[in-house]
Design a protein that fits this description.
The structure is a homodimer of 205-residue chains.
Chain A (H helix, E strand, L loop, with lengths): L1 H9 L1 H17 L6 H8 L3 H4 L6 H9 L11 H8 L3 H16 L1 H13 L4 H28 L8 H24 L10 H13 L2
Helix pairs in contact in A: 2-3, 2-5, 2-8, 6-9, 7-10, 7-11, 9-10, 10-11
Chain A binds a DNA duplex (18 and 18 nucleotides) through helix 4.
DNA sequence: GTCTATATGAGGATAGAC
DNA sequence: GTCTATCCTCATATAGAC
């Protein structure tokens, strides 16, 4: 496929623009990132940028697409299966969350989300649906199964999910802030695990 | 005190600048708020602003001073006293938190905090110390007393505090986002109370 | 303390040669 | 696809008259 190869070479700059832009956006935000700065880091002139994207906003939208694309999901089967084991389910979920928190690419996207959350309505909506609702839904299914099997005390699965998720988010926020300043996250390194332990003791029968 | 009165009249514009600036900052962030916009809403020319503040940054710093000034604290005595009653302590704390969440002035400041959190190192540090450490400390004292009185199961008071606080923060975040878009917060209106209920069931003996 | 006028610069974007 | 040159707008900030 020589054609494919050619295409890849042709889009090399485009990819580079995207990569560098995402880093700058995650550091300085949308307004704090100028097309000039992007171009200079890519190694081309500002005007050349416009051969690939028609505006700065188009670049941002392209970058923003990736914010919620993290392949974070327990498969349906996996939920049912591990929910039977109770704590294992919580542990798996939290460890996935921890992985995302420390993963460089996801960290970058999470920063952009935080920086632009109040400046961008679409991001807020996606935050609510993808970060919150989606996870509450997954967790609820797990907790529901656990209740049916008398592994945990009864209650509203949605409330329990909310409680479990909120702490995960808070840990992630704190880790992200510390890492933003290149500070040690030692004090939080086992916080995810501690959360699972505490939470399981809270709900198990 | 005619002198005092005079001073107040003289600082009328200055106060107006501060108030309008804080609203604009809480809506559009630091970069998104121009001195032009501030001046126009105050009803004077840009240049006149500089009679009161030497730069836009100075205005922001003045505004930012108020972010962490919320008179949020249970008095030492109150902690000891209500901690003896267990759940009452949690309830009081959560209701104070809820009050701040829905208070217009504190909401404005919380927005600024969110918008500028990743752009301003001082804010990050204050967030960690004032929003997190300070509250964890207050809560820990309460939980410690409860443990001593065998009201709750034993464990690390810091961990329990972390768990309790993180959910409060998350609710506040969600409420703030919804209100930013003038959306209903009905679904979250009793979330603070539900949190207290759930949490107390989780730790009580 | 506020105004007009102006300096100075940053940033987004386009035209046209190569 | 990239370059040089250029335009336009918006933003911070200052000088000096009233």
């Amino acid at each position: 496929m020589p054609e494919n190869t050619t295409i890849h070479k042709r889009t090399g700059t485009k990819q580079k623009i995207l990569k560098i832009s995402s880093t700058l956006f995650s550091e300085y935000g949308y307004k704090g990132t100028s097309v000039r700065k992007i171009a200079s880091q890519v190694g081309i002139r500002e005007s050349a940028i416009y051969n690939h994207y028609k505006s700065k906003e188009e670049i941002f939208l392209e970058v923003a697409k990736d914010i919620f694309s993290s392949p974070f999901s327990l498969e349906q089967d996996e939920i049912r299966e591990s929910a039977m084991k109770g704590k294992t389910f919580l542990h798996k979920f939290a460890m996935q969350y921890k992985l995302l928190t420390f993963d460089k690419r996801n960290e970058k996207m999470f920063r952009i989300l935080l920086i632009e959350l109040l400046q961008n309505k679409v991001l807020r909506e996606q935050f609510m649906s993808d970060f919150h609702d989606k996870n509450v839904k997954i967790l609820s299914e797990g907790f529901f199964i656990m209740m049916q099997n008398s592994l945990i005390r009864s209650g509203d699965p949605m409330i329990i999910s909310y409680e479990f998720l909120s702490t995960l988010f808070y840990i992630r926020l704190q880790v992200t802030l510390l890492r933003f300043d290149s500070l040690s996250t030692n004090s939080l390194s086992t916080q995810f695990e501690k959360h699972v332990d505490f939470f399981w003791e809270s709900i198990k029968i």
